[in-house]
Amino acid sequence: MNTDEKRIEVQFNLNGQDVKTEVLPGMTVLEMIRRNFKLTATKEGCGKGECGACSVIFNGLPINSCLKLAATLTPKDSIVTVEGLANDELMQRIQKAYVDEGAVQCGFCIPGMTISTYSLLKKNPKPTMDEIKFALAGNICRCTGYRKIEAAVAKAAERGEK
After folding, report:
1. Cβ neighbours, 10 Å, residue 16
2. Measured in whole angstroms, how far is the alpha carbon of residue 25 from the centre of its chain?
3. Which residues 6+ apart lie within 8 Å of 29 measured at CB?
4. What percent of the chain has pLDDT over 70?
5. Which of 39, 98, 26, 34 shows the shortest CA–CA distance to 69?
6. CA 76: distance to chain centroid?
7. What is the pLDDT of residues 20-68, one digit of tens each?
8. What span, in angstroms and rounded, lies between the C-alpha atoms of 146 and 158?
9. Helices first, then strands: H and E counts in the chain
10. pTM (2 decimals)?
């Protein structure tokens, strides 16, 4: 990126806080989150929107933050990262289920997987296994073979019924 480029000021809500920062025209939301706000759970895996490691919740829906330009953000926009859900009861339940099911190995994909899981369970607290697989379809994991992750999502949903 050319550092001589004119910076653009953006305002939006990040993890429940109204924020303001400067970005370069070609900077993605992923780059902005990591560089400007030092939130490092969101990872760059492919940079092409195929792996899901960069997933965040944007205006209530999971997106690949590597595909969204930061300069397009407005004060009406909301971004939630894994860090923003640290004290959320549902996210804590999800994280515990991932650990209990052995669904965390290298951990690189897990922030994106948990964002997708969170979005699913917020919308559908009792998903079927097909719905779980569909919700995770945009996330790639090289370590687990997905069965443990799918079991963790099912366990988190089950624990929510109690």
Report:
1. 9
2. 23
3. 56, 58, 65, 66, 68, 69, 70, 73, 79
4. 97
5. 26
6. 19
7. 999 999 999 999 999 999 999 999 999 999 999 999 999 999 999 999 9
8. 18
9. 5, 5
10. 0.91
Beta partners for residue 78, in sequence order: 13
Higher pLDDT pick, 87 / 5:
87
Joined together, the tokens standing for residue 61 give 């829906």
Q: Which two tokens stand for residue 155?
A: 């366990």
Using an 8 Å Cβ cutoff, are 136 and 127 in contact?
no
Amino acid identity for residue 113 in this structure: M
Q: In sequence order, what DSSP letters do the residues of 63-128 get, joined into one string?
A: EETTSSBGGG--TT-EEE-GGGGTT-HHHHHHHHHHHHTT--SS-SSHHHHHHHHHHHHHH-SS--
As beta bridge partners, residue 82 has none
Total number of residues shown for the chain: 162
